[in-house]
Amino acid sequence: MNIYDYVVKDRQGKDVKLSDYKDKVLLIVNTATGCGFTPQYEGLENLYKKYHEKGLEILDFPCNQFGSQAPGTNDEIHEFCQFKYNTSFDQFDKVDVNGEDAIDLYKYLKENSPEEYIKGIKHKAAMKAVEKISATYKEKNDIKWNFTKFLVDKEGNVAFRYSPIEEPSVMEEDIKNLLK
Prior knowledge:
Layout: E1 7-9, E2 15-17, E3 25-31, H1 40-51, E4 56-62, H2 74-85, E5 90-91, H3 104-111, H4 120-133, E6 149-152, E7 158-162, H5 172-179
Parallel strand pairs: 3-4, 4-5
Antiparallel strand pairs: 1-2, 3-6, 6-7
């Protein structure tokens, strides 16, 4: 299987085939509206505006598994993101990314991604602290917290995995290289 074999639910509960995104660079991120990393929505939207016309798609999957920081319905989450950060990229159904109820897409991403990118000793120390407080981080490849980001190339390969602490701007060079 590859990423294009998966079907996910949009925020209205309708099936979306990831094969619809073939030949695009995908940035897949689990998000939350009440997290310390929530301001990253602004950076995600900036990347989307800058590179969408060149082939970048951002797939936003709200997730309430980390500190219950994504409360509310899909519509409430969507309204918050549009009002506060003026997001225009695709937002999907709220999902689990770890544990028995993790959606298949996230199981695939975790199993097929390179090691998580964490820049510098300060960020590594911060992510070690996050690991300790994350109730769902059990396995080495599990998602540690909200705003873990996966960058997928045009062929559907998981090219990069970025830790939650990394700002979206850190990914810009990698995005540009994958869009070539």
